[in-house]
Structures are given as structure tokens and as C-alpha cells.
Automatic annotation (TrEMBL):
Keywords: Cytochrome c-type biogenesis, Heme, Iron, Membrane, Metal-binding, Signal, Transmembrane, Transmembrane helix. Required for the biogenesis of c-type cytochromes. Possible subunit of a heme lyase. One of its GO terms (biological process) is cytochrome complex assembly. This is Cytochrome c-type biogenesis protein. It is found in: Membrane. It is a single-pass membrane protein. Residues 1-34 form the signal peptide. One of its GO terms (cellular component) is plasma membrane. The lineage of its organism: Bacteria, Pseudomonadati, Pseudomonadota, Alphaproteobacteria, Hyphomicrobiales. Residues 23-163 form the CcmH/CycL/Ccl2/NrfF N-terminal domain. GO terms for molecular function: metal ion binding. It comes from Rhizobium sullae (Rhizobium hedysari).
Length: 165
């Protein structure tokens, strides 16, 4: 290679970074496609409430997505139901209660705090604590017990003789 002869290395990093940006924009826009334009309410304040409530409700088909993010037919029906109830003047709590009464507590992505949910989340902690207490009691009882019977005077004398005492 001579001093003036510099070979250019193709700059593929710019090409791949542009592809990554394009893919990110493409995939980041998918949740926006879940809500169809025909579902959107005319009043922006009511639409914001509907979107907020839809984000709290689980798609019963997908189960790991909110109805706001899901493209399932049931999710669309639930989004329309939420918007219908809001348009009829229901409060957010009334809308949620209506849907929970039909689909059960499972439809909520964030379950409400009740005795059942406290027991559900608290039971593992209580079981571990009970196991720790039982283990401690067992270990203390075992430590307090003698390990064997005492030696007779004859056995003690023989032991002392063997040990050279």
C-alpha cells in the first residue's frame, strides 16, 4: 500500500443503525394501532378516561395485555363497552364495577385489595414464617435433650483407664 492509496472500509454500522431505528419506530407504533379510529370518542377528555380505563382491564383472550393494547375481538368489544358506559355518564368506578360484575376480578390487571387478595399474597409469607417458627422450636427442643444415657461407675472407670487418666 502506498501513502496516498487508502482503501475505504464500507460503513455498515450506519446502515444497521438506520434499520434498527426504523424497526423500533415500526414496533413502537403497534400499540397505537389497537384502538381503531371508529372507537375513538369525539370528546378528548372522555377519550382520555376511556384509554385510562382500558389500560386497567385485561384482555381475556391474550391475558397478558390490556384491552387497550390488544387486537382481539373481545378486547375491541370491551373497549366499545367502556366508551359506551362513559358516554352514558358512568364514573370510572361504575364502569369498572360493571365489567368486573360480568367478567370477574380477573379482568382487572391490578386486582383490588380485599380479604381474598390479602390472603392470596399473604399466604406464602405466613407459610414461610410458620415454617421458620416450627424449625426454631424443633431445633431448641432437640438441643435441650441429652444425647444418650449416663455411664455407670464401672463404664466410667474403664473409660478413664483407656484414656490414661
Amino acid at each position: 500500500m502506498r501513502g496516498g492509496d487508502v482503501r475505504r472500509i464500507p460503513r455498515t454500522s450506519h446502515f444497521f443503525s438506520r434499520i434498527l431505528v426504523a424497526l423500533f419506530i415500526l414496533f413502537a407504533s403497534f400499540p397505537a394501532l389497537a384502538v381503531n379510529p371508529d372507537e375513538v370518542l369525539a370528546d378528548p377528555a372522555l377519550e382520555a378516561r376511556a384509554r385510562s380505563l382500558s389500560a386497567e382491564l385485561r384482555c381475556m383472550v391474550c391475558q397478558n395485555q390490556s384491552i387497550d393494547d390488544s387486537n382481539a375481538d373481545l378486547a375491541k368489544d370491551l373497549r366499545l363497552l367502556v366508551r359506551e358506559r362513559i358516554s352514558d355518564g358512568d364514573t370510572d368506578e361504575e364502569v369498572l364495577n360493571y365489567i368486573v360484575s360480568r367478567y370477574g376480578e380477573f379482568v382487572l390487571l391490578k386486582p383490588r385489595l380485599s380479604l381474598r387478595t390479602i390472603l392470596l399474597w399473604g399466604a406464602p409469607v405466613l407459610l414461610v414464617a410458620a415454617g421458620g417458627v416450627a424449625l426454631t422450636v424443633f431445633a431448641r427442643r432437640r438441643a435441650g435433650k441429652p444425647t444418650g444415657s449416663r455411664l455407670t461407675a464401672e463404664e466410667q472407670a474403664k473409660l478413664d483407664e483407656l484414656l490414661g487418666k
